[in-house]
Specification:
Chain A: Pfam families: DUF4097. The complex is a heterodimer of chains A (about 325) and B (about 170). Helix content of chain A is about 5%, strand content about 60%. Chain A has about 325 residues and is mainly beta. Chain A has a domain at about 1-145. The N and C termini of chain A lie far apart (about 65 Å). Chain B has helices at about 1-20, 30-75, 80-100, 110-135, 140-165. Classes of the chains: A mainly beta (about 325), B mainly alpha (about 170). The interface of A and B includes residues 167 and 305 of A.
Chain lengths: ~325, ~170
Amino acid sequence: MNIFKSSIVLLTTTSLLAVAGEKIDQTLPIGDVTSVEVENLRGKIKIVGQSVDSVHVVGELDDEAEGFTFEQNGSVMLIKVEMPRHLENNWSRQETNLEITLPKNVNVSFSGVSSDIVLSELDADASVGTVSGNVAIKNISKRLEVSSVSGDIDAHQIGNLTHLSSVSGNIDTSGASGSLFVKSVSGDIEAKSTAPIVEAKNVSGEMVLSLNSVEDLMMSTVSGDIDADLSLDNNGQIKLSSVSGDFHLNFLNDVQAIFRLRASAGGDLINRLTSVKAKEDKYGPSSRLSFETGNASSRVSGSTVSGNIVLTHK
Amino acid sequence: MNNSSQSSQAKLDNAINDLNSEIAPSRDLWPGIEKAISQQPREQVKNNHYSWRSNLALAASVVALVITLVNVNGLPNPSNQTDVVAMMVESFENERQAMLVSFGNKPVSKNALSADLQKQLDELIKARKSIISALEEDPENADLIHLLKFTQQQELSLLNHIYRPKWQTI
C-alpha cells in the first residue's frame, strides 16, 4: 500500500514538473475513482472510454503551459493543463494535444475555453463546458450535458437525458433516447431522434428536426424558423410558440389530435391535414385554427405573433 | 286434570301478587343522578363554544387558501398578466444591473469572440423588446411570457460569459 501511495505521489510530482510543450505519457490506476475531471484552456483533448482499469494520458502540452496535474483526490481524478493567466499572441504556438483513455464506467467532466473536445464510448454520465471550442461526442449511454458559446456541438448516439446548449454555435445531434433538450441563440439546430420527450428552443437560429415517436414536444423560437418531420404518439402533445418565426410541421403518421393554433398579429395558419381553414377574428389581425383528426387523443397547440404555422402530412 | 291446572295458575298469581312492586337499589343513586343532570348543560355550552371556534378557524383557513392561490397562480385576467410581465421586466432589469455592478462595469476585451458575443447580445435585446411589444398587444399570451423568460435567461447567461474573467485570457 505504501509502495502504491509512493508511486502515486511520484507520478503526481513528475506531472507537475512536465511543462511547456513537453510530451506526456502517464498512467494512474483507477482505484476507487468514480469521476475524472479534465481542464484544458486551448488545443485539443480526446477522451475515449475503454474496458480498462487505469487512466492513461498521452500527447503534448501547450508551448505556454506552466504545469500539468494528474492526480487522484478522493473519488475524483484531476487532469489539468496549467496555463498562465495572460497568454501571448503567438500564432505559431503548439497547443495542447492530449488523448486520454479511461474506464468506460467512470463519469467524465470537461471544461475548456478554446479547446476542442472529442468524447466517446462512455457508459456513464458526461458534462462538457467550453467557450469557443468545438465538441464532438459519440456513444454516451447515460446523462449528457454540453454547453458551448460559439463552438459547434456534434452529439450522436447519446443517452437517456441530454441537454445541449449553445449561443452562436451550431448543434447537430442524432440518436438521443429518453429526453432531449436543445437550445441556442443564433446557432442552427439539427436533431434526429427517437426520444419521446423533446424540447427545442432558439432565438434566431434555424431548426431542422426529425423526430420519431415523440410524446411530448415543445418548440419555441423568437425569429428563427423551425422545420419538423415528426410522428406524434397517441396521447402525446406538442406545444409551439414564436414571435415572428415560422413553423412547418410535417406529420409522418396519421396524427390523431386536437389542434388549437393562434396567430395574434398577422401570421398565417395553414392546414393541409384537413379541409378546415383558419378563421380570422372579426376585429383585429388575429386568427385561429381549430380542428380534430382521428380519435383526437393527442393535442397540438401553439401560438405565434406574426409567424406562419404550416401543417402537412408526409 | 283441569282442577290441578287451575290450582297451579292460582298459586302462580298469588306468588306474583306477593312480590314487591319496587326493587330498592343497594345504595342511594340520587346524588349521582343530580350531579350528572347539573353538569350536562355546562358541557353543552362548552361544546357549542368549541364548534363556533372551529367554524371560525375553518373560515379563516379558506380565506387564507384563496388568498394564497390567487397570489401563486394569479387571476386569469388581462390586468394580472400585465402585472406579471411588468414584474418580470423589473426583476430582469434589477438582476441585470446587479450582475453588471458585480462585474465592476469593466470594459469587455476587444477580440473576435467578444465581438461575436456582442452581436448575440444585441440579437437577444432586440428579441426581448419585440416580445415585450407583442405582449402589450396580447397580454394574455402565456407562450409569449415563456419566450420572454427564455430570452431573459439567455441574456443573463451571455452577460456572464462576456464578463467572466476567463475571457480576458483569450
